[in-house]
């Protein structure tokens, strides 16, 4: 019986995926803000692909190029209006590689 290799990290598995970036049409938008809300701050650690970062002014920004479309940030940030979340246009976004 095969067992999972405990040495395999999530980041290593995510690296197997490929992404087709829809340049200039990010499918997730962060509402402009001066100070991030608790929900926005939570996205910095909740996103498994680490798409959210603090910029030099302490504001939360997104670089969704590595987004796996899991919806975690949608659950945390969309009800409060902190983010606007849509799927990428057809043909764009993550291409999952298994194995
Ligand atoms: S959908 Fe998932 S992977 Fe994409 S930005 Fe949100 S939390 Fe990160």
From TrEMBL:
Residues 45-94 form the ETF-QO/FixX C-terminal domain. SUPFAM superfamilies: 4Fe-4S ferredoxins. Keywords: Electron transport, Iron, Iron-sulfur, Metal-binding, Nitrogen fixation, Transport. Pfam families: Fer4_ETF_QO. One of its GO terms (molecular function) is iron-sulfur cluster binding. It comes from the Bacteria. The keyword Transport applies. InterPro entries: ETF-QO/FixX_C, Fd_FixX. Could be a 3Fe-4S cluster-containing protein. To ferredoxins from P.putida and C.tartarivorum, ferredoxin I from A.vinelandii, ferredoxin II from D.desulfuricans. This is Ferredoxin-like protein. It comes from Xanthobacter tagetidis. The lineage of its organism: Bacteria, Pseudomonadati, Pseudomonadota, Alphaproteobacteria, Hyphomicrobiales.
